[in-house]
Amino acid sequence: MIQDLHETIPNLKPFDYSIHNDSNFLDQKWVLVNGIAEKKSTYIFKKDNVLEIYRKDNIIETSWNIHFQNIFTIETEDGRATVKAYLKDEDILVLNDQSKDEFALFINTSNYADELNSMDDVQDYIKYKYKQKASNLIYDHQFFYISESEEFGPFTVEELTQKVKRGKISAFCFVRDINEEDYSNRLRINDLIQEL
Questions:
Q1: Which residues, 6 or more positions from 53, have their beta carbon under 8 angstroms from its beta carbon?
Q2: Bridge partner residues of 62 (DSSP)
Q3: Is 75 exposed, middle or buried (0-12, 13-18, 19+ CB in 10 A)?
Q4: What's the burial of 125, exposed, middle or buried (CB within 10 Å: 0-12/13-18/19+)?
Q5: Region 65-92 average pLDDT
Q6: How many CB atoms lie within 10 A of CB 33?
Q7: E-strand spans in 26-166?
Q8: Region 78-86: what's the mean pLDDT?
Q9: What are the contacts of 10-15 at 24+ separation with CB within 8 A?
Q10: Radius of gyration for the alpha carbons in the chain, expressed in angstroms and rounded
Q11: DSSP structure class, residue 47
Q12: How far from chain centre, in Å, is Cα 28?
């Protein structure tokens, strides 16, 4: 069961109560992706083991309990479920039902301006998060560039952008991340600038 989950959603990390509970879990708006097209459900895990489930104009108040670092019991209108919790990142929560071969996927929309009401909205959210992560990753990294068969750097994307704006280098020079050995990715300065 757990192997199938990790194949379906790679790079899951077990939820660690001592690390994630206060910062990434409690009082967040977790939208249930499973069945979102039929009915949207937003789960908010509160202190004192209160679970609020929002559906349209209806609020269901129920309970949740943690038994170990990442094993929860959740009470819903479908009954009690024991689940193992995983995080894909700080905004994607997976609850793997321990008695069934099923899991529930949640997206934290607390810091997301748009509504999630359909699978198209979920795809838009994932694209948005990917672009945001890519921008942050690119912005924080340093790159070498090659011009006229000579290598220069490392420079941040901001520094490279300034060099392009001042006409010191071409936006079409090839770049490589400081962790790469060669320019086989065929990435250009212009590609980095477009991702910011």
A1: 41, 42, 43, 44, 59, 60, 61, 62, 76
A2: 51
A3: middle
A4: buried
A5: 86
A6: 20
A7: 30-32, 42-45, 50-55, 58-66, 71-76, 79-89, 92-97, 103-108, 142-147, 150-156
A8: 89
A9: 11/88, 12/86, 12/87, 12/88, 12/94, 13/86, 13/87, 13/88, 14/69, 14/70, 14/84, 14/85, 14/86, 14/87, 15/69, 15/70, 15/85, 15/86, 15/87, 15/93
A10: 22
A11: G
A12: 14
Q: What is the largest CA-CA distance in the chain?
A: 68
Q: Both ends of the chain: CA-CA distance in Å? A: 40
pLDDT of 1 higher than 50: no
Residue 92 backbone dihedrals phi, psi, to 5 degrees: -130, 120
Is pLDDT of 2 > 60? no
Least confident of 51-65, 95-109, 133-147: 133-147
Q: pLDDT per residue over 91-105, tens digit each?
A: 899 999 888 888 999
Residue 101 has a pLDDT of 81
Residue 134: band (very low, low, confident or very high) from pLDDT cuts 50, 70, 90: low
CA dist 10 and 145 (Å) reads 33
